[in-house]
Design goal:
Blueprint: H1 22-39, H2 68-84, E1 90-94, H3 120-130, E2 135-138, H4 155-165, E3 171-176, H5 188-198, E4 202-204, H6 209-218, H7 238-243, H8 245-258
Parallel strand pairs: 1-2, 2-3, 3-4
Length: 259
């Protein structure tokens, strides 16, 4: 959780499945997270994580579970909560980051499996088919049985699989291109150029100011029509939000889960 001071504490994603009313709690968690961000005039949170399992150091308890059915149940409820208050959803990290131990913040992971379509990616496909995902974020993971480039910079994964095979029509965000997992694609400007060529609509450069300047100086800046669809659908103040029955109920429920 990036925002803490002045915000309700939200439990880790794997917490919801531990409770008999976990789906309702997940819906409330998604609603509360989105509502408080919107009240602070923030349009979008890159959520939820749809990755499978807890072995990966980069994912951990951000995963809703270790099997597809659990992840689908609780991520769906969480996204329903987000969308009910007017926030778009972003599934990550396509086609699945959970099958590697390495942390893509620190290095480029290699996933040697040949059954990614039947395993991790099946979760993304199901949510695309359900029409609940507005945007997607690919992983800085290389799947050598399919392509030599990280999914975040791979035309195979983004254009052939995500767009053509799965029919995804939403926005594609790169993951943070200042992460070490993206370094295999070259300099910051080269990473950005490769991600755009691969099919990313928007680039994230979350750290390292010099890298951000390099990208802005070397890559074309263009408008993305799809981006308007991701803006928040309503506005309200934090004081008005905290007067609502739904905020009080969700806030109390999350307090019980995080205490």
């Amino acid at each position: 959780q990036r925002f803490r001071e002045g915000f309700s504490l939200i439990p880790a994603a794997d917490e919801y499945a531990k409770h008999h009313n976990g789906e309702e709690l997940a819906r409330m968690g998604g609603w509360l997270m989105a509502a408080e961000l919107i009240a602070h005039d923030i349009d979008l949170s890159f959520a939820p994580v749809l990755d499978k399992g807890h072995q990966c150091k980069a994912i951990g308890n951000r995963s809703f579970g270790e099997d597809a059915d659990t992840i689908l149940r609780y991520s769906t409820a969480y996204m329903q909560g987000m969308k009910s208050v007017g926030m778009a959803t972003t599934g990550k990290h396509f086609p699945g980051h959970g099958g590697v131990i390495a942390d893509s913040h620190l290095e480029t992971p290699y996933d040697e499996r040949s059954d990614i379509f039947e395993q991790d990616m099946a979760i993304f496909k199901a949510q695309i088919d359900a029409g609940i995902l507005d945007a997607m974020m690919p992983a800085h993971v290389i799947f050598p049985n399919y392509d030599s480039q990280p999914a975040s910079g791979s035309e195979y994964w983004l254009k052939h699989v995500l767009r053509q095979k799965l029919g995804f029509k939403g926005l594609i965000f790169s993951d943070d291109l200042t992460m070490e997992g993206a370094a295999i694609m070259g300099s910051p400007a080269e990473r950005g150029a490769q991600a755009m060529k691969a099919g990313c609509d928007m680039l994230l450069m979350c750290n390292k100011r010099e890298a951000q300047v390099e990208v802005l100086d070397n890559l074309p800046v263009s408008t993305v029509p799809l981006a308007d669809a991701l803006l928040k659908k309503q506005s309200f103040s934090l004081s008005d939000l905290k007067l609502s029955h739904e905020w009080k109920a969700a806030s109390e429920a999350m307090k019980r889960l995080t205490s």
